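Key result, reporting period 2: structure in, sequence out.
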């Protein structure tokens, strides 16, 4: 019977009915992927073997099918029985039919309460002449209910020692049958005989049983032994007195032979086994979902399965045999198959992987055993198995893939039929010992078409650990980890963390083993402990598999299987140090951490790409700090470097600056003491892997002399060597307020330069060294008076010897980089070949690929540098590392000719029944990007007295912004000193005030928007430089189309404005993927719309609406009737997210997800949200949201979360024609036109038009955006009384048309060339007329030129045109003494940007750093021009468009 009101159950029942009609048709043929294999073509089934075709899995949403009951498993059947079964009936009724019961056996029967009655029954012996009725009186004399009677009958049949019943000369029939019931298997008949003498309703059941002789893949045989259903306690319960009285052990069919670890095939002989008599409680009142594993009634008694979800006979045959010899053991475990719900696996060429899922919080130990069918045992197969075992084994150790999923991996050593038996290990405690028993949980028959020779060798690791990953041993050691048992090692290195669950200290030791279980050098493992966490950094010595074994106090507690595609970067060039000789990497204990705490780099392992590094520390006490830097030489020895570290103090603690001359491995040791009389104590050691293309130019810091205090701050210069014949400004901040005098002493010439102090204790002075000063020292002295001056710092004028040493170091760095480039290219090729091998692809060809040519070109240039001794390595590295920039946005377009032909005939009248919108329109969300939600806001104006407005954003949104910054900027070397960001509001001052983080955030959203060369990044930059950086970020964001409503100075003082800007930036980056998809994959996006919207223009849908339709498309594909109309209330229950993630998840990890049905089954919304975000984490898409944000319905965070999902896993529908039609349509629009459209849309949005422009041709069709721009160009030009600003009903079409006509009319008043362009053209979204109008609007959008009253503008009665700008530009260039000239905006020389850079330098002298300008004079140097373009855009952004136009107007 099927109950209503349960989606899972109804769907499962429907799928089961369909399976009987479709899936399990015995005549079904194998798919081509299997039928083409020789093994399956030649396979001949045995008598009674089930057709292999019936074992084909319907793999679409397999995990959901297992969870829902489409493929029945014990756990799912039990869940359905508990949730959908019926309540008990009248216990005294005698005419109740079969029905599924909800209760467990333990709910109605407690063996302890029957102990006394059981002892009484066991003491009874029938008399030879006693009849059944007479014996029943004695047997049931203590029975008070039906349950007592049934228990007495079962206990008597199972526990009676029949050997004690002697044969008598005269016996009653009852006595004779009881005496012989062990020999004749009459236990069942005697039980029913006795029950028939009571008032208990009962039913005899007969059918199929899976006994010891049953083998997977074979049909279960009709059994001679029956079982009984008894009505007790208001429900029907199942009893098998025959199997309850005897247990068959040591039975073996002899059809399979086991394989040992060495690959030997053990001889197996058929054994009939032996019977052990006793009382097996499992078969008394057995729960139906448990008995169905071995007992199946015939079809006419199908309802006596007593299951809410009945099985078919075919399902019973194919269901695996769980707990084959000890079903009573199942109560100790909660486990379910998650990949193979049938007992036969049709293997494909390659490795077979079986996954099991444990209940939450449960972790078991396993041991898998492989056997081979006797028909496949030959001398040849024995040799193949032996060879496979010796090379890479055939059965990997069990691997825990997640907290609840384990994997078993079988590598076929030859073709044939195998059996994989998975045993559970359980420890049983006895008073004197602990015994570990193994129980077979499940066995599978695996058909293997051929041997898998491609599988790589996998280590065994520690023999005392049964699996890879966390387990019982780790939990008993009071440790935990979230790491899976098998870890993919990306780029040759991986961090693994374990955490203590108690306060007990742990002494963890790590050992690394190779694929052949050989020991690997401990140098490849770096470990340290911070608080309760122990971190292990693995540096792979080569590609392949490794076993990492972790021991606690010498006892193995867990191990991990590390799969590395290559060695770590620079493995061949940089040796690993012996860190033990340098003090190890352990962080200082908690007591020291109270004194000093790392802020920027809490872990002692640092991967660095830059020639400099800054570490920040918080310190509560006034401590003295000392730093020692060592370089690890090629022989592994350490060489101490002096002068490459510098320590200074800030308000929170101290800063350690480090410089590196060449790439390599370094060890930074930090020491502290609390006073000058105290001994130095070790604080922390850092292991630094510096892997950038360092050029050897990093210089030493000035030498701090004894009087120098860490309270002082070195501002400029920060290098020890000073240039000759050039004035050098020296500035420092002295922390001691008693300093009254400071001067610079040139010891070579014995000359003093007095320094001046400003209001913030910054001392400045300028010194110049002539040729005779080469090599002499310059010392900074200061004190309370001239008589009490002490030496603070020591500089040195550069000498010829210093230049020689520098050139030598540059050549050494170039030589090292040349070697590293070649090795890195080989490493990447090796890594890719490793990945291609796993995907069964051919290795890469020996010839260089296009992406390798750039590396080879750089290698050639480095070789040339070494031969010719050329110094400009920095330029070559910069050229190699620079990405090709896109053409600059906003380039001038050719003006339309005056005689441009008309683009259309007289516009037709719209019919009276014209709909309000001219095409299929969509309901709209607010077109503005989401802004930060605030708490406790009032309706009062801020300008009114007493108005209190909280500009504190919601906590979840603050955390989302901080998390995005930490993730997206962590690889940016300029941001290392600012990260991580924890409380964004509290950290605005000090992290955002210099604008560097803002500029990096802009680049994270749109790569290379800002050229970092244009930034001020000096440690001592003044406030004007900081404002310039912020201005650069604001203008760059505005050029992308991000709305900016504040000035730089205002932004720097308002956390709310800053957060809003960051939020808008993130929103732009995410929705830009939606817009690009609308342009590139418009046909695919259109295909996912419902039928009612198929005629719509896909470009007109706002990003939020597109995301909503994308979610609904996947919900429809999941078979759900749900749809969402908002990102707040409609997603609070997490059901939409659960189904969406299951649809877009990659197939290879889909089985690892929390099933959608299981998530929806949870009643706790917060738990649902947690499970959903766990799934998102598995596909690396968990951003912006916390469980509380889903449940609270935070629309801002929800829409960002979905946009991120779309960006990472779009999973758009495939087109029926393979996408050719869509490709043809996409190819019709050249990329230049797409870029132009995007530029105009960004410009309009930055100008603040409403509604926000996502698609030029639809969002501006109302005419309102054009009129708003016209009003900005000439305020008062638009008579708003003529404008229809509210579009209503059937008149909306005509209102749009009137607005567009008015916009064209006003454009002509301004002198625009609009020949043949009418309002209907703009309303219909015709491309050329729309772009022609926008081009002239952008060109004329210059209120400064009008306000300044430029004579050329006034005389022409028009706004600025191209000729005016060209004339003005050349005047400025001539006035500034520049040679470059502008002929027109089609001038090819604009490509190198020299003219524009010269113009900026004329407008603001000294603004352009010409040392950064590249020549770009020939085609061979064309790549250099991109750097000039970036510099020009950034200089322009720093100068600000408004300021440039003011120059233009003057």
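The corresponding designed sequence is given below.
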């Amino acid at each position: 019977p099927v109950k209503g009101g349960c989606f899972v159950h109804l769907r499962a029942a429907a799928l089961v009915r369909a399976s009987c009609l479709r899936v399990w048709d015995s005549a079904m043929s194998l798919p081509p992927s299997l039928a083409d294999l020789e093994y399956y073509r030649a396979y001949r089934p045995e008598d009674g073997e089930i057709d292999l075709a019936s074992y084909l899995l319907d793999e679409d949403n397999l995990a959901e099918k297992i969870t829902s009951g489409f493929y029945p498993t014990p756990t799912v059947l039990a869940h359905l029985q508990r949730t959908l079964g019926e309540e008990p009936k009248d216990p005294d009724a005698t005419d109740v039919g079969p029905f599924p019961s909800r209760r467990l056996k333990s709910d109605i029967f407690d063996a302890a309460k029957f102990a006394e009655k059981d002892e009484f029954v066991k003491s009874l012996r029938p008399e030879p002449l006693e009849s059944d009725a007479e014996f029943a009186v004695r047997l049931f004399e203590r029975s008070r209910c039906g349950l007592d009677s049934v228990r007495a009958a079962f206990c008597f049949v199972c526990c009676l020692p029949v050997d004690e019943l002697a044969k008598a000369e005269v016996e009653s029939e009852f006595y004779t049958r009881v005496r012989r019931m062990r020999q004749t298997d009459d236990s069942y008949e005697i039980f029913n005989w006795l029950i028939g003498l009571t008032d208990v309703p009962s039913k005899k059941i007969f059918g199929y049983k899976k006994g010891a002789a049953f083998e997977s893949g074979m049909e279960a045989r009709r059994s001679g032994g029956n079982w009984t259903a008894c009505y007790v306690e208001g429900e029907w319960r199942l009893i098998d007195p025959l199997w309850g009285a005897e247990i068959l052990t040591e039975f073996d069919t002899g059809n399979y032979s086991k394989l040992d670890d060495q690959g030997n095939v053990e001889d197996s002989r058929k054994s009939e086994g032996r019977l052990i008599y006793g009382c097996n409680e499992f078969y008394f009142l057995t729960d139906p979902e448990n008995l169905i594993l071995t007992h199946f009634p015939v079809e006419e008694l199908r309802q006596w399965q007593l299951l809410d979800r009945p099985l078919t006979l075919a399902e019973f045959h194919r269901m695996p045999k769980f707990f084959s010899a000890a079903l009573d053991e199942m109560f100790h475990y909660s486990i379910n198959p998650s990949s193979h719900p049938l007992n036969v696996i049709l293997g494909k060429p390659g490795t077979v992987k079986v996954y099991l899922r444990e209940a939450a919080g449960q972790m078991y130990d396993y041991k898998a055993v492989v056997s081979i069918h006797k028909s496949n045992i030959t001398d040849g197969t024995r040799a193949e198995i032996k060879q496979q075992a010796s090379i890479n084994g055939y059965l990997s150790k069990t691997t825990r893939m997640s907290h609840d999923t384990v994997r078993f991996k079988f590598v076929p050593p030859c073709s044939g039929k195998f059996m994989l038996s998975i045993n559970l290990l359980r420890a049983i405690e006895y008073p004197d010992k602990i015994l570990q028993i193994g129980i077979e949980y499940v066995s599978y028959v695996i058909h293997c078409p051929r041997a898998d020779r491609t599988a790589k060798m996998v280590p065994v690791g520690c023999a005392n650990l049964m699996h890879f990953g966390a387990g019982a041993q780790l939990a008993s050691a009071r440790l935990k980890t979230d790491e899976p048992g098998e870890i993919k090692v990306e780029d040759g290195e991986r961090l693994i963390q374990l955490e203590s669950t108690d306060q007990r200290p742990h002494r963890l030791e790590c050992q690394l083993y190779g694929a052949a279980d050989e020991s690997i050098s401990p140098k490849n493992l770096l470990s340290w402990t911070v608080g309760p966490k122990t971190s292990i950094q693995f540096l792979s010595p080569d590609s392949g598999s490794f076993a990492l074994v972790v021991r606690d106090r010498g006892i193995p507690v867990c191990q991990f299987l590390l799969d590395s595609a290559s060695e770590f970067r620079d493995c061949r060039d940089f040796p690993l140090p012996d860190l033990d000789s340098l003090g190890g990497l352990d962080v200082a204990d908690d007591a020291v951490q109270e004194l000093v705490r790392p802020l920027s780099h809490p872990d002692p392992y640092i991967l660095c790409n830059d020639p400099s590094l800054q570490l920040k520390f918080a310190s509560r006490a006034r401590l003295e700090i000392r730093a020692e830097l060592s370089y690890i030489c090629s022989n592994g020895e350490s060489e101490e470097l002096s002068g490459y570290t510098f320590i200074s103090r800030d308000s929170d603690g101290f800063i350690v600056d480090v410089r590196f001359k060449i790439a390599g491995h370094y060890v930074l040791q930090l020491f502290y003491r609390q006073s000058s009389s105290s001994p130095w104590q070790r604080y922390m050691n850092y292991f630094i892997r510096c892997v950038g293309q360092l050029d050897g130019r990093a210089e030493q810091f000035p030498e701090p002399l004894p009087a120098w205090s860490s309270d002082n701050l070195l501002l400029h210069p920060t290098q020890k060597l000073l240039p000759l014949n050039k004035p050098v400004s020296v500035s420092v901040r002295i922390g001691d307020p008693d300093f009254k005098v400071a001067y610079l002493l040139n010891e070579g010439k014995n000359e003093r330069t007095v320094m001046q102090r400003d209001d913030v204790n910054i001392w400045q002075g300028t010194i110049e060294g002539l040729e005779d000063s080469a090599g002499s020292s310059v010392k900074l002295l200061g004190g309370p008076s001239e008589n009490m001056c002490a030496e603070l710092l020591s500089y040195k004028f550069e000498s010829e010897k210093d230049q020689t040493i520098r050139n030598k170091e540059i050549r050494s760095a170039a030589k090292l980089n040349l070697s590293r480039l070649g090795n890195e290219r080989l490493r990447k090729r090796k890594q890719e070949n490793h990945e291609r091998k796993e995907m069964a692809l051919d290795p890469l060809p020996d010839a260089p690929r296009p992406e390798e040519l750039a590396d080879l070109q750089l290698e050639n240039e480095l070789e040339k540098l070494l031969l010719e001794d050329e110094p400009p390595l920095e330029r070559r590295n910069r050229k190699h590392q620079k990405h090709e920039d896109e053409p600059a946005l906003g380039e001038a377009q050719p003006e339309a000719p005056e005689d441009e032909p008309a683009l259309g005939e007289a516009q037709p009248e719209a019919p009276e029944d014209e709909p309000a919108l001219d095409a299929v329109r969509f309901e709209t969300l607010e077109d503005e990007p989401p802004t930060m939600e605030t708490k406790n806001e009032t309706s009062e104006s801020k300008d009114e007295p007493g108005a209190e407005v909280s500009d504190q954003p919601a906590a979840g949104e603050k955390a989302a912004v901080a998390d995005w910054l930490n993730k997206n900027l962590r690889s940016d070397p300029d941001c290392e000193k600012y990260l991580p960001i924890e409380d964004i509001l509290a950290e605005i001052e000090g992290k955002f005030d210099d604008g560097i983080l803002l500029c990096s955030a802009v680049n994270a959203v749109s790569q290379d928007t800002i050229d970092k060369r244009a930034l001020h990044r000096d440690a001592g930059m003044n406030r004007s430089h900081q404002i310039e950086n912020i201005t650069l970020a604001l203008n760059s964001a505005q050029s992308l189309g991000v709305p900016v409503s504040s000035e730089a100075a205002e932004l720097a003082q308002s956390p709310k404005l800053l957060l809003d800007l960051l939020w808008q930036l993130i929103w732009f980056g995410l929705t830009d993927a939606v817009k690009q998809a609308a342009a590139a994959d418009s046909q695919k996006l259109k295909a996912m719309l419902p039928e009612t919207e198929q005629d719509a223009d896909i470009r007109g849908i706002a990003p939020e609406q597109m995301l909503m339709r994308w979610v609904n498309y996947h919900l429809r594909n999941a078979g759900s009737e749900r749809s969402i109309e908002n990102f707040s209330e409609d997603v609070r229950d997490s059901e939409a997210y659960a189904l969406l993630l299951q649809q877009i998840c990659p197939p290879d990890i889909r089985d690892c997800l929390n099933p959608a049905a299981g998530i929806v089954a949870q009643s706790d919304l917060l738990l649902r949200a947690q499970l959903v975000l766990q799934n998102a984490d598995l596909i690396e898409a968990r951003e912006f949201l916390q469980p509380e944000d889903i449940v609270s319905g935070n629309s801002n965070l929800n829409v960002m979360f979905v946009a991120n999902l779309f960006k990472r896993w779009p999973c758009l529908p495939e087109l029926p024609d393979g996408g050719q039609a869509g490709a043809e349509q996409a190819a019709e629009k050249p990329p230049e036109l797409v870029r132009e459209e995007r530029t105009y849309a960004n410009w309009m949005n930055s100008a603040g038009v409403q509604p926000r422009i996502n698609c030029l041709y639809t969002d501006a069709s109302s005419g309102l955006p054009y009129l708003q721009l016209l009003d900005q160009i000439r305020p008062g030009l638009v008579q708003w009384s003529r404008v229809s600003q509210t579009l209503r009903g059937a008149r909306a079409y005509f209102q749009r048309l009137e607005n567009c006509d008015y916009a064209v009319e006003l454009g002509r008043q301004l002198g625009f060339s609009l020949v043949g362009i009418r309002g209907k053209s703009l309303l219909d979204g015709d491309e050329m007329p729309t772009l022609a109008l926008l081009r002239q609007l952008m060109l004329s959008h210059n209120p400064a030129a009008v306000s300044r009253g430029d004579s050329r503008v006034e005389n022409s009665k028009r706004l600025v045109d191209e000729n005016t700008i060209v004339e003005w530009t050349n005047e400025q260039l001539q006035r500034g003494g520049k040679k470059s000239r502008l002929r027109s905006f089609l001038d090819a020389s604009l490509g190198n940007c020299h003219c524009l850079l010269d113009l900026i330098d004329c407008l603001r002298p000294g603004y352009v750093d010409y040392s950064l300008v590249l020549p770009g004079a020939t085609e061979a140097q064309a790549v250099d021009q991109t750097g000039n373009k970036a510099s020009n855009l950034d200089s322009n952004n720093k100068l600000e468009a408004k300021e440039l136009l003011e120059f233009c107007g003057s």
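The first helix runs from residue 7 to 23. The chain has a mean pLDDT of 78. This case is discussed further under Risks and Mitigation.
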